[in-house]
Specification:
By secondary structure, the chain is α+β, with helices and mostly antiparallel strands. It has ten helices and 18 strands. The strands form four sheets. Strands 1, 2, 3, 4, 7, 10, 11, 12 and 13 form a nine-stranded mixed β-sheet that branches. A five-stranded mixed β-sheet has the order 14-16-17-18-15.
Length: about 300
């Protein structure tokens, strides 16, 4: 069945694991997917700069409503670190602002990188999409304006360093981190810790949550497919919440949840923790994301986002 025929019955919906190529923006990818799937409701979960490649999770149709709940998932990156230079953008595309003729050895670089493992505070770069007082930092940076930014907590779960060319200060980083971590800032901070400055020379996101580069498709690959094969690539939105426990309901309780009412745990025999998010499932499958909240009569699961028409 063609996508145009499918859309006459229901709005096409699901998640795409995109392998973004270099040279285009994340928004360019969104526009391509809008055209290929004939829908305006397309979003993504975590911007990749034009120079960056790799996993970009794209949400199509009703799945786009999930974006606000999943952008904070953990990420994995392979990055290039070039020591001895500092740039105004924090990556190799920028103008060089400082140079160092003295480069540390691999052991010193490994030691510098290890200092950033764990829970750290990181100051977002000016060249980022973060908004301050309604203005994107990136837009200000392009006008030569730099403003104070508040440091934010991020977590580096694992980081490894491998020399590519020690004599020229070229290293490869593998990083497993929390959402919201800026790898260009990490490269700059490692360079500063090593005493020679540093900048990001390449970046590939190898995983975003449960989505891995091995299973990703480039926009060109998707464009070359027939409509039925494209539709077959869409992953059910429930996969975005696979780490959340399931609450299966039937009968009257299912009707209550579908109407938006809270479902008390005393009625379901469950014991989820307050604040925990839950997949709510009825006879038709996953239909809503819920959150455990405290009410006068005890803890209950409250539907907070519906994904069924």
């Amino acid at each position: 069945m063609a996508i145009s025929e499918v859309s006459d019955i229901y709005e096409i919906s699901g998640v795409l694991n995109i392998n973004k190529p270099a040279g285009i923006t994340s928004h360019d990818v969104v526009n391509i997917i809008r055209r290929l799937y004939n829908t305006k409701r397309v979003g993504h979960t975590g911007t990749l700069d034009p120079m960056a490649t790799g996993v970009l999770v794209v949400l199509v149709g009703r799945a786009a409503k999930a974006a606000e709940y999943i952008t904070a998932g953990d990420k994995r990156y392979s990055a290039g670190l070039r020591l001895g230079i500092t740039t105004d953008t924090g990556d190799i595309t920028g103008s060089i602002t400082a140079r160092s003729q003295t480069l540390p050895g691999t052991a010193a670089v490994e030691s510098a990188a290890a200092r950033f493992k764990g829970d750290i505070m990181q100051t977002p770069p000016m060249y980022s999409a973060i908004k301050v007082n309604g203005r994107k930092l990136l837009d200000l940076a392009r006008r030569g304006i730099e403003i104070e930014r508040e440091a934010r907590p991020v977590s580096i779960y694992a980081i490894s360093v491998k020399p590519v060319c020690e004599e020229q200060g070229e290293y490869a980083l593998d990083v497993h981190c929390s959402g919201g971590t800026y790898i260009r800032t990490l490269c700059e901070d490692i360079g500063a810790q090593a005493g020679c400055g540093g900048t990001m020379s390449s970046l590939q996101r190898t995983a975003s949550g449960s989505f891995a580069i091995e299973n990703a498709h480039t926009p060109a690959e998707i464009e070359s497919m027939g409509e039925e094969d494209r539709a077959g690539l869409l992953i059910p939105v429930e996969k975005l919440f696979c780490d959340c426990p399931a609450l299966k309901l039937s009968g009257f309780l299912a009707k209550l949840a579908n109407s938006g009412a809270e479902i008390y745990q005393s009625k379901t025999g469950t014991s989820f923790a307050e604040g925990e998010r839950v997949r709510i499932i009825d006879g038709g499958g996953f239909f809503a994301l819920g959150e455990v909240r405290a009410y006068e009569n005890g803890l209950a699961v409250k539907p907070i986002k519906f994904f069924r028409i």
